[in-house]
Amino acid sequence: MSHLLTFRYGGLVLEDKRSWPVFVPIANAFLPTQALVLLKQHQGRASRCVVRVGDLVREGALIGKADEGGAAAIHAPVPGIVKDIRPVRVSAGGPCSAVEILLQGNFDRLGKREERYIWTSMSRTDMIQTLRERGVVEMDEPGRPIVDMLASRKSPPILLLNCIESEPYLRTENAVLHECLKAVLEGLAILNRLLEPARTIVALEPHQEKELGEERLRVLSGIEAPVELIRARQKYPQDLPNQLLAAINGGRKKQGIGELFIIRPSTALAIYEAIVLAKPVIERFVTIAGGSIKHPAVLKARIGTPIGDLVEECGGFLGQPEKILLGGPLRGQPVHDLDAPLTKQTGAVLALTSEETNRSSKVACIRCGRCADVCPERLLPVEIYRRLDKNRTEDAHAIGLSSCTLCGACGYSCPSRLALVEAFATGQAARELRR
Amino acid sequence: MSRVTKTLVGAAPHIHAKQSTASLAWGSSLLLVPAFLWGLYCFKLAAVLPVVAAISAAILGELLIGLARKAFTLGDGTAFLTGLLVGLSMPPGVPLQVPILSALFAICLIKGAFGGLGANWMNPALAGVVFALLNWPAEMGTWKWPSHLTGVVGVSGASPLGFVHSKFATEAGGGDALSLLGASGFSFSGLDRSITAFLNNDLLGHLGVSLPSGYMDILIGNKAGAIGELSGLLLLAASIVLIARRIIRWEIPASIFASFAVLVWIFGGIPFGNGYFSGDILFEVLSGSFILVSFFMATDPVTSPSTPGGRILYGLAIGGLTFIIRRFGSGAEGVAFAVVIMNCFVPAIGKLELAGRINRTETLHE
Ligand code: SF4
Ligand code: SF4
């Protein structure tokens, strides 16, 4: 299995912006003196706040309780005093309640020897309960709670560890693999036990192969069933479910995506830490990069750290950034200011210069078809856009709007800089609303 | 801590390809400069005036439309390109009202009246050229010989293509395009003679074929013709850059050439009394506006299909129509008419493209 797999239709070959040194030891970011912890760090509704202003919280104490599906428990990333509970506005969307914690007191974990729990003797119910209590969610968007994902699967799925980061600049998963390979694979083994999947697959970028050869994988994971390796070509958006499925199926997407159970190395690490180290999700690896960052790096930082602190730790800004993003340059969220806190889903903080964004003013669609060339779902974005532009939402759905994954490939390629993805997201939401 | 004053929060994606609609249009204009310079060398002032007039008229028209709509759109480069293309399609020394009115017609009526860039269904530049051909057939059919060939400026004569095709009606009889030209007193340049001799003696001779004189003149542009259409060589070189830089896609010119060449090869010899499969592809392709139109005008994104399959269908049809119009029509400018006709079918091709994609998407999602 030496050749590289990929999906057949569309896609972008993007310049890899990860030219900074690859495997430096990952630095632990400084602890934030003030952590701002959002009560919604998952797909569903915000969790219920269980602390009051003035409360003393310990590191890892529960501060947000999940009352319904889609929500997950939230924990205090640092010990301290609850200074404020207030709504904050982060990126797009409405305001979200957040708990502000002033760093104070002793750490229960930092610098202490970690105790390890032997999970092989735990029952399935115990493990699921533990995952729920520790607030384990997908460590990237949309942030579904792991327990929900486990509960909703039907037939034995294909368990897939998705190590591919096909957006430029991102290097978070790479770093996680490098620093915590054993833990990631143990997390995978735990999931393997919980899911009893039909196949277990690790999807890799070619350069990760040295670290993750087949033999190594088998030995390290301790999974008895064979673990398959898929080496994928560097093409955007190879890391999305449909395109992963296409790579597995030799180009075309043949099965529904319900059968794939995809997790990121970061998520596998969180599962491992929750079960083996009894640790809630209070920190994560995050890429700090972009042309406006003086010394790009991957940091291990506490949830709730203001992104400004992280930027500062990377030497601050180099000139004026044009855009600051949480996440990758194609699917990430722009933020207004540097007070936005790190969340469980924030894989990257990017500060891009205008040379990198290549923004130019919007002009009319010239029907050039570049969007159709790159659409990995083989849609005709130009036609969908024209219908939405005339408020013909249903017609837009009739020609495939609902299968758009909002990957952004069309918007990237459009020479007229039309806000295609924004229009498609609005069109999809309009239909959801009517249902 | 370092603060940033203001960052943008526009929607994803946050990075874009370098190409913009403006860079595409200005890029095409830039690549037409060599062909214009050759026209300038051949015709001096007679080449400059029509081009300048057409560009000025196009810019003026775009400004007027812009004023009416309160949108300043000159920066997108498309009006300049339209003007330049109209100008380059003019015969040298044409009365200036021809390029001016044609460019105004293109910008104000074809492009502006339908709602500006992207909303027009016919290529403005070509519509302008066709407008000129229909309104001023005499002026549009008066050609000049390049001054460096005749020694004086302003000697008029027929273009090779027009001449050869005009003979179809009157003189049947054996031969081919070039011998017809030669026999009628078209003199070929010294350059042509030396290159042809070199090719025949040193290269082709070993293969047992020989190239008659005349082709080199036609390829380089030593002939009578429109200002920007003379040099197939320079236009082809620019087209390679167009495709390599992905300003245009290869499908349209390639498929126009394919269907046109096949038809010429099969039927093109008949008017000369030579029977099937004896057509002169090289002469037909290098003559008239074939290259300029197929690479620079038929590829206008607004008025051509948006998928590879659609573009191939479109190109094949243009090639076929061009052959029919050149063979049976009155004028030699078949390709311009063919593209304008096919512009009308782009929406229909669009329906086919959509149906094709939707069916395939459904099977993908089973
Ligand atoms: S890429 Fe942009 S300009 Fe080109 S057809 Fe698509 S939407 Fe229109
Ligand atoms: S955002 Fe949607 S329409 Fe655009 S390329 Fe991606 S899947 Fe296709």
Give me the side-by-side strand order of the main sheet of chain A.
1-14-13-17-15-16
Largest interface: A-B, 69 and 49 residues
Query: Spans of chain B of 5+ residues with little confidence (pLDDT < 50)?
Result: 362-366
- Secondary-structure element sequence of chain A? EEEEEEEEHHEHEHEHEHEEHEEEHHHHHH
Instruction: Kindly report how far apart the N and C termini of chain A lie.
Output: 45 Å
What percentage of amino acids of chain B are in beta strands? under 5%
- Please report the number of helical segments of chain A: 13
What proportion of the residues of chain B is helical, as a percent range? Answer: 55-70%
From the alpha carbons, calculate the radius of gyration of chain A and give it in angstroms. Answer: 21 Å
Q: If you average the pLDDT of chain B, what whole number results? A: 86
**What is the subunit arrangement here?**
heterodimer
Distance between the termini of chain B: 54 Å
The portion of residues assigned to helices of chain A is: 25-40%
Give, in spatial order, the strands making up the sheet with the most strands of chain B.
1-2
Task: Work out the number of β strands of chain A.
Answer: 17
Main sheet characteristics of chain A: 6 strands, mixed
